[in-house]
């Protein structure tokens, strides 16, 4: 079996080598169309993570000289490697993969196709021709936490979360810090679903939180299942990924949203101009990549003003989300008074701040 | 745990257990006729898709349920062709059916992912829904839940109190005896496969019409496999299937509520509960003796002409 895999890999590499001169030759042409391929882990049809990226894809598809394609619901692991290989062999100039678990397979394929530009979202590995990029969603989470903390009457907020990994934990912590900045009595109850995209399970998780008595539902999932559950019971909800007001028109406070359109347009423009440099990028509120959706009608003006002011402070740098002192669930000080956390500490965050009910295990 | 929370836990138990109950009863009926069909997971997904599709096109909920039953029944017949006509290995054919069903439902459903439909909405039954405790737990759900209450007694009556039901069971125990009595064990097995797949399809319809009200990939998420294990857990008896399905539904609902209450237990351990229980149930079932409950000729093919 191993031998077969090796042979296959060698053949693939040979094919790659054989194709490279062809691709290079084509790239030298003047009016060449830039072919961009996207690989998504979940379907694009829902209002979630892949949908948000696909809005970006559509934006660049409208640019002159750009042609795009996408593959949806591609599982992490070997299937994703095959997807990247196929696109690279078909001569795609740029290949974008938007799931953390694509990182290793993309790195492998990037090594075989040096002329192709690879873009990996939410990981940390880079290569000469592979960029790691992501956004500081936790800054937007802080703002949505402020809205939720202002609107809860029982001081109990529910948070439906996918997997206990640093990205999700960081978001829950920032949300909780935001909620407690405006409402020191607020508590955030976390239920893990261990799925990224399973609308039924995610809805049931939200229902369990509602049964326990929370009166705002927030979430970190790729589906709008938690919003459906909140809407059905007439309870406020905070969405994620895209503006989820359409799913929960009566009770949607706001959403922490990705705006990939401008990011991908800038990136493609640079590639077309031959100015793109690969690297590791982590963009914040100031870039516009992360933000919050328009407030629901029920959010009072003084809350909006306060959150908008905090947004401006984060952009100016006068408000830092994880500035010390920050205590964990057991009351221990994790970030000392006056200290600012390193990005590496944020990227490896595996503990909950004070005010979160739940476990990071 | 407060009273309201306890009632909501029991109500959520019934909801989570309903698709399992349909699928378990369906597989049970098929196995009682002597045919093992491991295609439940794939058939359930196709049932969910058929129901979603007809609901989307016609808006008629009951027509959607019927389409799920009949469509999945026909898919089940493929298993009959493989095992009853061509004498194929039942385990292999069933596994192939699961892979086929997963792939086909993904393929057919790809253009509709995320599409919302109305489906069945909850309606509390008059009078019954007002009974304290029992009302909120059993009688404030949707029509497919109420229908599922009728299934175990009906299946029990059919298997134990009707001539055709007894002949079907005989086809699963001693097919030769059925032939000797002048009946066709193969005909009973065809019926067992079709009717069983019909019920499995209703379990799938529950997922797309009642649980999510939308179409997406992998709606079953392993529920078909739990149903296969539940048949053994239930010793092939419809009454026991109710206990098994609701017990599993209850554990799924309980682990979420334990997390929501802030129980300091790793979520990975809580998630394991239903599957750990599956293994324990199978151990317990086999400790009680393999012969108890399993149809004697389960999985054994018989001559096509019989």
Task: Summarize, please.
The complex is a heterodimer of chains A (361) and B (306). Helix content of chain A is 42%, strand content 20%.
Given as residue ranges, the uncertain stretches of chain A (5+ residues, pLDDT < 50) are 1-30
Strand order of the largest sheet of chain A: 12-10-9-8-6-7-15
Judged by helices, strands and strand pairing, the structural class of chain A is alpha/beta
Number of domains of chain B: 1
Order of helices and strands of chain B: HHHHHHHHHHHH
Number of strands of chain A: 15
Secondary structure layout plus pairing:
The complex is a heterodimer of chains A (361) and B (306).
Chain A: H1 2-27, E1 34-39, H2 49-61, E2 66-71, H3 78-89, E3 94-97, H4 103-112, E4 117-121, E5 130-135, H5 137-151, E6 156-161, H6 166-182, E7 187-192, H7 199-212, E8 216-220, H8 225-232, E9 236-241, E10 252-258, H9 260-273, E11 280-283, E12 290-292, H10 301-316, E13 326-327, E14 333-335, H11 343-347, E15 356-357
Parallel strand pairs in A: 1-2, 1-3, 3-4, 4-5, 5-11, 6-7, 6-8, 7-15, 8-9, 9-10
Antiparallel strand pairs in A: 10-12, 13-14
Helix pairs in contact in A: 2-9, 3-4, 5-6, 5-10, 7-8
Chain B: H1 3-32, H2 40-58, H3 61-85, H4 90-109, H5 134-138, H6 143-161, H7 163-173, H8 175-180, H9 185-211, H10 223-233, H11 238-260, H12 267-287
Helix pairs in contact in B: 1-6, 1-9, 1-10, 1-11, 2-3, 2-4, 2-9, 2-10, 3-4, 3-9, 6-7, 6-11, 7-9, 10-11, 10-12, 11-12
What do these coordinates show?
The complex is a heterodimer of chains A (361) and B (306). Chain A has helices at residues 2-27, 49-61, 78-89, 103-112, 137-151, 166-182, 199-212, 225-232, 260-273, 301-316, 343-347, and strands spanning 34-39, 66-71, 94-97, 117-121, 130-135, 156-161, 187-192, 216-220, 236-241, 252-258, 280-283, 290-292, 326-327, 333-335, 356-357. With 361 residues, chain A is of the alpha/beta class. Helix content of chain B is 71%, strand content 0%. Chain B has helices at 3-32, 40-58, 61-85, 90-109, 134-138, 143-161, 163-173, 175-180, 185-211, 223-233, 238-260, 267-287. Chain B starts with a helix and ends in a 19-residue tail after the last helix. The interface between A and B is large, with 36 and 35 residues.
